[in-house]
Predict the structure.
Amino acid sequence: MNLLEIKNLTKEFNAPGSGIFSRKKRIVHAVSDVSLKLAQGETLGLVGESGCGKSTLGRTLLKLYEPTSGKIIYSGQDITDFSPREMKPLRKEMQIIFQDPYSSLNPRHTVGEIVGASLRIHRKGAKTSEKLEIQQLMERVGLNPEHINRYPHEFSGGQRQRIGIARAIALRPKFIVCDEPVSALDVSIQAQVINLLDDLKRDFGLSYIFIAHNLSVVQHISDRVAVMYLGKVVEVAKTSDLYTRSKHPYTRALLSAIPIPDPEKERSREQILLQGEIPSSTNPPSGCVFNTRCWKAQDKCRTLEPKLAQIGSNEVACHFPEE
Amino acid sequence: MSLLEVSNLRVEFPTLDGIVTAVDGISFKVEKGETLAIVGESGCGKSVSNLALMGLLPKRGSKVSGSAKFYLGPDTNELINLPEEKIQKIRGNRISMIFQDPMSSLHPFFTIGDQLIEAHQIHNSVNKEESTRKAIELLKKVGISEPELRMKSFPHQFSGGMRQRVMIAMALINQPELLIADEPTTALDVTVQAQILKLLKDLQQEMQMAIILISHDLGVVAGAADRVNVMYAGKLVETAKVNDLFAKPMMPYTSGLLASIPKPDSEVNRLSVIPGQPPSLLNVPKGCAFHPRCSFLDRVIGGPNLCKEKEPELIEKESGHFARCHLESHVVLKK
């Protein structure tokens, strides 16, 4: 059974006009027509370069942004048009971990207040048992429970990310959107946090939507991976299928651009170098969004938008998929 | 003969809580035309050491000592504590820098052309037409299309990757002997990163310049570097040719870093980690600075107390491969 399903989800933002006095409205097509499923206990990786809409998608499906169109179905109920009041009981079950462990924690609140905030909002319990619960949470994520009265600035980046994780798991959620949770951390600390997320998933039966631009990290943690480009999902597959048998030219290029930490392999491999950069999402290309950078693009790609279709083990949106 | 010879470089910042030794006596050489990578985690001193070389640290509030000899033809220039007007003749001319964030390193009020021309005119007594021609030539070289038109653009009209190309053009306009690239691709997307790394490599061959590449990304280092310096808590802890370092790291910190990267082809479910976190520079552990995080202490002949008490020297363990560690060189660190 799917825990979460999104159908044709679209999120557009109004962008400021091109000049100060311009009345013409420009629209940023952050997420357009995305359909995805997340099964119970699954980790779905979302990868893509900056501006591809992966973070917007993560926030829209939590209804932190109101979707422009499309449907969000959570545990069998359509929550697309739920009011904040209707959402409140569901908020316990869905949480988010942010990228920047500096700006996502209130500097004037102690760890205890930060981690305990959701406990106080969502249920009324005795103060004494609450403190114990917070300390257990801190211990669970590898923080010293004696530090409950310390402030965020007294912790390192990795420890702060652990505070953010403790806050997210406080209400025993069913699923967590992890929005670049390790990108701001040093390599040796990244591994610690990834292992922690892995353990929590197993212990609490969590499902993750794991957003990251680091493809090796996503590969490590995900069961399935969706690749996004300019607001669209261009390929979805099981992790092993995506990394070994990708069909979309963009996925191929993206994978080939990851530097391999091994000098001999890194220098001998074939690399696909893409030309140019991602076009603006206020004015996406017609047809296939990738056609401006694709080496296989033909007339059809510039006029007709390819839909996601099953090709072998992968779902791919491409007119001329790779073998 | 080397191009740059740094010996015993030390950078201290007095703070309210005590003296922070950001760089603690590092020595290394850069040969002509080679790429030397400096890796390490945040706060290990990799950026500060290079800012010190370029005289870019605030005069008040920092203390730089040691020596950095920069050999230019028959001349030897001592870079450390060189008077401002003298270092300005070298900086941006014979040694250039590019930084991580291409947005904040370009002036938002001036056109790309103005900034490139200024960089050329400061160091060359030529007329403006000559500098304009040079600027256009460089923009073309870094892969910017329609360079004549783009000269009139402002930085905000460029994307991140294009801005980094402009920064590279500006750094190379005077054909420096040495380019210091401080995390040049960290702010860029991976497909754009691949373009920029390729560009730097091509330009390096064409111009025969040396590069100091500061990076925390071991994948980038594996592809770009000839030699690698690993820094930890302000000290150089390992230095070797790139192949030797990745194939046989000789310091547990280096092997731990290598092991903690998720590998594309590994099937292992758990990442191996380095426990704990880098030390505060106000309170660097006694003995080997890495010993509280090291998992090889009991493999040391002489016992764990040796690592806790006595700081190891940076010694040559194998030909050209130096490490700061009490372990015997035959102990295999790779897992």
Summary: The first strand of chain B starts at residue 4 and ends at 15. The mean pLDDT of chain B is 91. Chain B has two domains: 4-225, 235-263+271-324.
